[in-house]
Amino acid sequence: MNDSPARRPTWVIGNWKQHKLTAEANALADEVARRGSDHVRVGVAPTHLTLAGVATTIADRPVTVFGQTCGLHDTGAFTGDVGPQMLVDVGAGGVLLGHSERREMAHETSAKVAAKAALALGAGLHTVVCVGEPLDVREAGGHEKFVTSMLLESLDGFELNDASASRLVVAYEPVWAIGTGKTATATEAGAMHEALRVALDERFSACGARIPLLYGGSVKPANAAGLFAPPFVDGFLVGGAALDARSFMDIVSITAKAHRP
Ligand code: PEP
Question: What is the tens place of the pLDDT at every residue in 129-140?
Fold first, then answer.
């Protein structure tokens, strides 16, 4: 296993979910982009409707705009869907896939996530594949096997090259920690990240070592330093705390301060 985090970028990405009307989204993006960070790649994921405005507001500033999902096709008779090329067209540099809310509400299976990930990587998007276990799986003790299998199924059927490896990101988000105020302990997050690191290295050989592994689940300024401490935690996917520029950028600053050169 390659344990050199220097090979991987550190990301902090805010998932705004179904929040923020146009003016609020632009204002939040502007505040985030104004503060920026040297050691951390910062991303924001507004709704599809506000994405183009956010991208215009922060054009040429070092913040990547993410879609919150994308369709299975670039174009076609798929009412309501948005293809990865369309996200690129309006200024997105990345996309989140397989968020637990999409898996639950929109039946985004791991097979669909894998197909979307191949398409999104091909479109040149930073592609964040999210995985995580529900509470009953954690309590029964089968979480590492469950999440590792979910990850491998969500990455099935495509290979990476130098360029696409530099755009793939994985986020471990225990479902029981999302929006609940409960977080994994640093020890729990570290153990899962180590298991996923091994799985990525086996799945993609040398390219696997380059894929950052983010933690998500009630990350806040108060717990960010502790959660960033385990060696295989390469950053955060942040929900609730990303809706306020100050708390989000405090998480970015804390992560940047603890950044491993
Ligand atoms: C998320 O939705 O990806 C998330 C981690 O949310 P929260 O930080 O609110 O738990």
Answer: 999 999 999 999
